[in-house]
Amino acid sequence: MQVFDATHPEERRPSMAMIWTALVSVWIVWGSTYLAIRVGVETIPPLLMASARFLVAGSILYLIARPRRRDPSSERPTPVHWRSAAIIGGALLLGGNGLVSIAEQSVPSGIAALIIASVPLFLAVGDRVAFRKRLSWVAVLGLLVGFAGVALLVGQSLAGRLDLFGTGLLVLASLSWASGSLYARAAPLPRNPMLAAAMEMVAGGVVLLVAASVTGEFGKLDLAGISLESLLGLGYLVVFGSWVGFVAYIWLLSKTSTALVGTYAYVNPVVAVLLGWAVLNEAVTSRTLLAGLVIVVGVALIVGAREPRPLAGDPGAGEPPVPRRRLRRALGLVRRLQRVPAGR
Length: 344
Hints:
The protein is mainly α. The chain has one domain (16-338). The chain is 71% helix and 0% strand. It has helices spanning 16-40, 46-65, 79-103, 109-116, 119-131, 137-158, 164-186, 193-214, 217-220, 228-255, 258-261, 264-280, 286-305, 328-339. α2 runs antiparallel to α8 (193-214) and α10 (228-255) crosses α14. The two termini are 21 Å apart.
């Protein structure tokens, strides 16, 4: 199987229609995961639902991306790789997606997406603190504007309009996701991004399962009481959130600019707010709209000001960050996925 090499001029460039179709798919799929989580946790305990999602999605993705015995050049996971996957999976999927799932039991999906949109702000602060990266004045302005938007939403919690505990969990989820993303940049992982992501999903799913056991969610699970809507929400998260969105995301990173792909960071929350309002009749106040606009502007300033680097993934979608240096090895797997018949 030939792997795409961007240095080969004979490789056909994708049409703009293909690029925009994939980009809009990422916008809609990842933006809609907050709605799916909200529906899923109505009758499924949140940590158990997240654990099932990532164990199923990660295991199947691992089977697809696993090293082949007949391929001597394929990199096999080592214990060090699995340790990194467990750390990243714990930070991203338990601390990030798991807390989002818990919070959405009491916080509207659109509000959750708006608060989680602040992840690039925490990443910028982490760059400054952990890597001593100097921030431009545009980035600093983006930080001030973005955190002002978060403050507007937190202010609604303090005023009693939103659940304070759930809002606090969402802020912690943003911090945890940003911390895991920063650690992932230099963590020893397989070069194949799909294999690394699969390992993180499996390891994170196990960590979520342990957390669900410790918090007593097994005792709260009522199999007979699980609604069809929650099951469909879980299925949507596995198939679209963790597979379709991820394949489109990796393909886009290899075909177009990071800046264009990075637009998901401020389009996803808009999609989430609109879907929450249209499908679940979630209230959208003028203060929520103002806070969302302020956060989106702040994130746009941060994304536009920073040098091209690995994007942060998405906590609602449960997608780990993907360093560009690991993309080329994954493109052959993307093509393999594209050739699999839909009914298989």
